[in-house]
Amino acid sequence: MDTTNFIRMMPKIELHAHLNGSLCTKSIEELCEELYGVNSNEKVLLSKELVFDGGNLDQCFLKFRFMHELTATKKGLQLATELAIRDFAKDNVIYLELRTTPKKNSEMSKEEYVKNVLEAIERTMKIESIHVSLLLSIDRSKSVAEAEETVNIALQLKNTYKDIISGIDFSGNPKLGNFMHFIPVLEKARKNDLKLALHCAEIHNPAEIDQMIKFGMERCGHGTFLSELQLNEIYRRNIAIECCLTSNVKCSTVKCYDDHHFKHIFNDKKAPVILCTDDCGVFDTTLSNEFVLAKNTFNLTKNDLLQLSLNAVEFAFVHEHFKHDLKQRIRHYFKIQTEPES
Ligand code: 6MZ
């Protein structure tokens, strides 16, 4: 089996995927057809709307407006959730942590938004062989009151959906909002057993990065601009770094793949690394593609691929017994695929 196929068939773990960024062109077309009944010419135009060919973070954030329109109805949101999960399952992702920002609109309150996503997750898990957890995202460009509402919804629904709701993500345009203002809300989440995945060091902002590391988190999203001192602290605190190669290069926070911080952090064992897609629809990628990219750019061995997969399990927001199952499935795949056929 060649490496690309080996990676494609490999049971994978995705821990950093924004729902509205994870709709591929085909899913967007299916959504548009279902919601508006658009014809094929219109579909081509819509696909062009979706994919982000490259630019800066601000330009990338404009893309989400289009997806947010599509998921502003119960029908659109549920279908989008199903389609996103289906695509990860097709790529042999066996455990997915999806994250999304609860949004209020004329049809739904924020709580109803979350309930619709949860319903779609439960339904899709019965059809696809994938386990899905949900992180609720705090958008740092919005108010602290909105963040508080999001944490309260997570806490309220956690009892009913205890195997699905697992934590809080802190995301949104990193140039906006002040992290310090969100500390009391994030502290409340942590005190109530919600795990934290914070977008940290996606841009060069040393003071904020120090504040975030000091506050603590289970996983650091991106970690692009961590200094050596900050990396040492990340290591000491056993925080994993979610590396999103295509996302960083397309948003120009990293110049090219060869220069990606993955190389230093993974090769020099600076901190546990996890490979993730971020927004596989917007960046036109898959988790398999990210693994192939990493393997080819950084000359990874099969052992490295195994290590990256096991890192992801170790830092997943799930119970120990489920981690054990996931690790067994991954190890089994590597064992049977690397042994010579009899
Ligand atoms: C920070 C990002 C992001 O929540 O509507 N999001 N936040 N950095 C990134 N790097 C490119 N990519 C996506 O999914 C889309 C939302 O996720 C966050 C942004 O807040 C974006 O609006 P949901 O499902």
TrEMBL record:
Residues 11-331 form the Adenosine deaminase domain. InterPro entries: A_deaminase_dom, Ado/ade_deaminase, Metal_Hydrolase. One of its GO terms (molecular function) is metal ion binding. The keyword Transmembrane does not apply. The keyword Cell membrane does not apply. It comes from the Eukaryota. GO terms for biological process: adenosine catabolic process; inosine biosynthetic process; nucleotide metabolic process. Keywords: Hydrolase, Metal-binding, Nucleotide metabolism, Zinc. It catalyses: N(6)-methyl-AMP + H2O + H(+) = IMP + methylamine. Its cofactor is Zn(2+). Belongs to the metallo-dependent hydrolases superfamily. Adenosine and AMP deaminases family. This is Adenosine deaminase-like protein. It comes from Bactrocera dorsalis (Oriental fruit fly).
